[in-house]
Q: What sequence folds into this?
């Protein structure tokens, strides 16, 4: 095939882009079916205790208000924890909405008002009288840090390995090393805050069947959750989610609006839409606050000798949410002595939930800031220090990487950034009345692959249709899958249709962890390959077939035809093959399973290096990230445009995490105080200056058949430490609590 | 949010009449604050009286004494971008443009801007104690997360901040607020318009029930040669001020002939200390002198833990803004400090 015809590698614009920017794309709250009812959730206003009295009478008396559901009148439901456990449930007992009178956290849903309009339902919620008996609570991680304990182990631990065992003799090696640094870090709570609010429209189909439009990162996950809890047959529950207005992990688990919408629809035998408002977006999962301590040591040549990294994360009282925070340093730096510890503290909050680069962005901030301190201690350039400690292998698990072009990330990033213009001393670079600082940091994220299935169909008009239950959370999944399918069959983009976001379609796992392209893309590829085989076998059997003596290796698929490689004048079109098939479509279905035997000999990871310039107003402390470059090694880049957007989005989030966003907690009240986008500060245009992305070439034949690693999280990981390091270089002040408020630099 | 009636007032007397004839009514301008308060279930008017067409929406008319009159019913955007404001009162223009977002400024009216309520988190949460919302219930902010709260003029009952940018410039310019009400018209000098919390934190200002702000008068002196508005906040745009400063200077060479300094983000009203301004008269426009003026302005400032930094920040901001006023052309958009 001619290289120019390849779709993979082309910077294709999002195929659904126009639908989205013109408002044509329908999101889960946009299905206005006749007779639709609207639900508004009542949330607990206390943090812990019991409901002692509920009076829904005044609300129910309002014309147009149909029903008020509370724990007192909800239908009886599934009993076992397992039935409430979704694919992403951590060990413990999942939260059950409207279970009983117990209040476990502030903002807990305690009722649902269903009415003929959203406004009426919301008004009704103000009329429901709730009395509670309050109990003592604790929501302050730092206050409770001494109660930290080891996390429970469960299914979730498979994708989130616990810290590796200690190696060597940390304490001794640390004490004996000439250069030692130790530091403590604190990250507060963050909420995902995708622009699209959480909404579920449950269409009551009448024959016991439900069609559910849900904001989710996993249609099948929502389907299983609903079926298990409400005792419905899987085939009677269909979950559809073609467009997702951002999720960032918040929709990895079914949220309570799904439960409440389905419950109300089943009870009322009518279709029900439940939309959460912005305040309610602060009443479920979040990035957990985390305390970290690091102690790293090196010899005076910069070789890291010992590393100790302890993280204490928040979890709820009912589940052990964990993330991978402390495993990364030893995947990067080959110290002989390590001690990695990860602990949890239970608090009266909802369970935390994966949020873009969960754990990685937290841990790497501490690791890469500590490395920066070590660079000053040993008087070695921070980039040089990373190169001195560069390891081709993953020493934490004693195995090679399937591929690792991190060195090229460092070198190409540094070159484009102009790192050599950095003067080593803090406070030594200026521009007018601004201090200028250069900082850099390494990024790493795992490159996983899960099983998934896909259908590929050659339709009667000679077009390709590929099906998968996967969602597109705004990352460009639709576009990228279409590209992969088009190349596999040698077709034009216009002739390929990828249908997705529907639990009726072949299995795909939840969309997260940067493993969607590797997982679903591989399924699309194997389904495409199987379809090719089938097309070829039909073509071979055609009367007077030009391929009668050929085998699959001797043909090429191009322009919706099969050509004999040795004699391109001999070919058969897909339409002729359909005709030979009696005018019927040709379909294959294929499961893609990662080749574990091959993969487990290798560590598989994406790498990056971020280089950042900050300007700090010396008198007022104001920080601007004036320039940032991230160089990424993520295997093959299927679509440089959507991939670049992912990295840019991650970098902006990195700026946000380092300098802007925080959920403000009031520990006296046990609640979040800035539950709106005016006070939850994400960056605005005026905060974002020059950003640039480099994709370093990386070939990987082990990671998966496509050689892709995923780009969803890696853009964020290295930015917060690079910014913190740049601020130190500019000001001589090391601020280890994020976000860095400008006044801490006064 | 409750159900409500909507009435449209044809002129000011009509509005006052309508207000007098219904209980629990509220005037509505752009609605950018009032509707939020209703959605948060904090304001429960049973009638909204739309006053957007009760008076002229032309932003600006010239007054006999050489000043300007701003219509209370004009939008913040039309006011900020009006050629006469940009030319004669650039301090006001810059202050308005440092506030909110373009979309909000297109809706927000000048009258509404004076009456916007505090952004105290606890005020906006109907389920926690707050003396401003529910007198006598207590103040959650004093021992809570009070990063955005006041350092000057606070009371044991309330430490909230009045959040406007526009009003900080109006205070520096010594504007006058013209109102009309059931008992006829009156004018209120700007310094007397907003209140300190004292033991009545529920009152933000001295407007009486049923009164409408009809216009705001600017005296002739607009400090258009030497002025600066500096706003310090947690992001570069679309955030309320942690500290802001409006400075206007009249200079004779290096020597200050007349000075105005008003602070935002630090008190329950725009904060001005005439003694500090008098101190500067006859002195050189230097960092040292601005620093001394700052000390006078910040006399008695107290932090509540998370907002302690505001005292030092305000001092630095006053100094910096004084120096920026010497070269107003170097001001950056969004009230970022100049280089
Ligand atoms: C997200 C957000 C960010 C913001 N950021 C900033 C900022 O950075 N800086 C800043 O200064 N402001 C900011 N604002 C506030 C904004 O400037 C005010 O909401 C706006 O000025 C209010 O004007 P309005 O006409 O919309 O008032 P409305 O909401 O209509 O009314 C507010 C109050 O004034 C009363 N009222 C209105 N007009 C009159 C009148 N003529 N006479 C008597 N009573 C009247 C109403 O009854 C009501 O009580 C922000 C607002 C939002 C929502
Ligand atoms: S500072 Fe004022 S507005 Fe805020 S909680 Fe206290 S009383 Fe209420």
A:
């Amino acid at each position: 095939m001619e290289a120019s015809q390849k779709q993979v590698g082309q910077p294709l614009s999002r195929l659904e882009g126009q639908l989205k920017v013109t408002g044509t794309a329908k999101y889960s709250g946009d299905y206005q079916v006749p007779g639709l009812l609207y639900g508004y959730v009542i949330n607990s206003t206390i943090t812990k205790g019991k409901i002692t009295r509920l009076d829904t009478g005044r609300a129910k008396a309002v014309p147009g208000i149909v029903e008020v559901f509370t724990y007192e009148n909800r239908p009886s439901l599934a009993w076992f924890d397992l039935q409430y456990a979704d694919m992403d449930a951590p060990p413990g007992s999942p939260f059950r909405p409207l279970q009983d009178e117990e209040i476990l956290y502030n903002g807990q849903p305690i009722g649902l008002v269903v009415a003929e309009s959203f406004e009426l339902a919301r008004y009704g919620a103000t009329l429901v009288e709730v009395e509670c008996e309050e109990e003592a609570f604790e929501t302050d991680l730092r206050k409770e840090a001494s109660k930290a304990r080891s996390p429970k182990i469960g299914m979730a631990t498979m994708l989130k390995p616990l810290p590796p065992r200690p190696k060597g003799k940390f304490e001794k090696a640390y004490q004996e090393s000439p250069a030692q640094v130790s530091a403590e870090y604190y990250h507060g709570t963050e909420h995902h805050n995708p622009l699209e609010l959480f909404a579920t429209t449950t269409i009551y189909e009448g024959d016991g069947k439900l069609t559910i439009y849900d904001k989710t990162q996993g249609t099948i996950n929502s389907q299983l959750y609903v079926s298990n809890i409400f005792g419905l047959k899987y085939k009677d529950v269909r979950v559809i989610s073609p467009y997702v207005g951002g999720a960032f992990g918040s929709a990895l688990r079914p949220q309570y609006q799904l439960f409440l919408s389905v419950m109300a629809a089943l009870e009322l035998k009518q279709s029900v839409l439940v939309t959460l408002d912005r305040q309610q977006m602060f009443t479920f999962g979040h990035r957990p606050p985390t305390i970290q301590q690091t102690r790293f040591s090196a010899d005076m040549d910069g070789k890291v000798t010992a590393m100790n990294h302890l993280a204490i994360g928040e979890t709820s009282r009912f589940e052990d949410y964990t993330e991978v925070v402390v495993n990364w340093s030893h995947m990067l730096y080959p110290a002989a002595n390590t001690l990695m510890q990860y602990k949890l503290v239970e608090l009266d909050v909802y369970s935390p939930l994966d949020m873009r680069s969960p754990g990685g962005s937290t841990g790497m901030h501490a690791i890469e800031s500590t490395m920066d301190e070590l660079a000053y201690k040993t008087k070695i350039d921070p980039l040089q220090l990373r190169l001195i400690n560069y390891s081709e292998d993953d020493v934490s698990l004693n195995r090679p990487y399937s591929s690792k072009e991190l060195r090229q990330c460092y070198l190409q990033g540094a070159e484009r950034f102009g790192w050599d213009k950095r003067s080593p001393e803090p406070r030594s670079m200026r521009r007018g009345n601004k201090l200028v600082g250069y900082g850099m940091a390494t990024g790493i994220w795992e490159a996983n692959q899960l099983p998934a299935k896909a259908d590929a169909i050659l339709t009667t008009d000679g077009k390709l249709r590929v099906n998968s239950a996967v969602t597109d959370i705004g990352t460009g999944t639709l576009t990228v899958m279409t590209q992969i399918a088009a190349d596999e069959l040698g077709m034009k983009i216009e002739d390929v249709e990828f249908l997705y976001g529907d639990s009726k379609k072949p299995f795909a796992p939840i969309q997260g962890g940067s493993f969607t392209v590797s997982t679903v893309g591989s399924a699309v590829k194997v389904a495409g390959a199987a379809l090719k085989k089938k097309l070829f076998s039909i073509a071979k059997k055609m009367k007077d077939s030009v391929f009668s003596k050929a085998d699959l290796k001797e043909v090429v698929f191009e322009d919706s035809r099969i050509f004999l490689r040795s004699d391109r004048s001999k070919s058969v079109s897909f339409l002729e093959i359909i005709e030979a098939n009696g005018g019927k479509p040709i379909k294959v279905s294929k499961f893609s399973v990662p080749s574990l035997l091959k993969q487990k000999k290798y560590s598989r990871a994406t790498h990056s290096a971020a280089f950042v310039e900050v300007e700090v107003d010396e008198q007022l402390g104001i920080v601007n990230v004036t320039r940032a470059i991230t160089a990424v090694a993520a295997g093959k880049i299927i679509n440089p445009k959507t991939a670049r957007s992912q990295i840019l989005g991650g970098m902006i989030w990195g700026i946000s995490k380092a300098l802007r966003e925080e959920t403000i907690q009031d520990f006296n009240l046990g609640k979040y105080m800035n539950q709106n986008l005016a006070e939850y500060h994400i960056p605005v245009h005026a905060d974002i200056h020059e950003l640039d992305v480099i994709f370093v070439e990386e070939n990987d034949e082990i990671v998966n058949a496509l050689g892709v690693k995923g780009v969803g999280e890696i853009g964020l990981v290295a930015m917060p430490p690079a910014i913190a390091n740049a601020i130190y270089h500019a000001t001589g002040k090391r601020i280890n609590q994020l976000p860095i408020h400008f006044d801490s630099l006064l | 949010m409750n159900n409500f009636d909507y009435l449209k007032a044809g002129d000011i007397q009509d509005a006052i009449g309508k207000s007098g004839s219904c209980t629990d009514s509220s005037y509505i301008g752009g609605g950018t604050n009032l509707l939020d308060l209703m959605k948060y279930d904090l304001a429960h008017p049973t009638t909204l009286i739309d006053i957007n067409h009760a008076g002229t929406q032309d932003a600006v008319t010239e007054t006999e004494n050489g000043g300007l009159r701003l219509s209370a019913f004009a939008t913040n955007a039309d006011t900020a971008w009006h050629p006469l404001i940009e030319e004669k009162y650039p301090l006001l223009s810059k202050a308005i443009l440092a506030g909110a977002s373009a979309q909000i400024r297109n809706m927000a009216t000048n009258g509404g801007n004076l009456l916007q309520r505090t952004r105290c988190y606890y005020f906006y949460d109907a389920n926690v104690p707050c003396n401003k919302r529910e007198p006598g219930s207590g103040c959650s902010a004093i021992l809570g997360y009070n990063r955005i709260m006041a350092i000057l003029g606070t009371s044991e009952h309330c430490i909230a901040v009045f959040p406007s940018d526009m009003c900080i410039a109006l205070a520096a310019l010594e504007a006058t607020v013209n109102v009309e009400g059931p008992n006829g018209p009156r004018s209120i000098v700007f310094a007397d318009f907003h209140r300190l919390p004292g033991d009545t934190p529920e009152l933000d200002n001295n407007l009486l029930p049923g009164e409408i702000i009809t216009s705001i008068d600017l005296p002739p002196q607009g400090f258009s040669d030497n002025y600066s508005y500096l706003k310090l906040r947690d992001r570069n745009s679309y955030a309320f001020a942690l500290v802001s400063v409006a400075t206007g200077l009249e200079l004779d060479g290096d020597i200050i002939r007349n000075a105005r300094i008003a602070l935002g983000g630090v008190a329950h009203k725009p904060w001005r200390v005439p003694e500090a301004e008098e101190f500067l008269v006859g002195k050189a426009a230097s960092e040292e002198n601005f620093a001394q003026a700052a000390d006078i302005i910040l006399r008695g400032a107290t932090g509540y833990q998370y907002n302690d930094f505001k005292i030092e920040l305000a001092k630095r901001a006053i100094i910096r803004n004084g120096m920026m006023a010497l070269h107003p052309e170097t001001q950056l958009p969004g009230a970022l400090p100049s280089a």
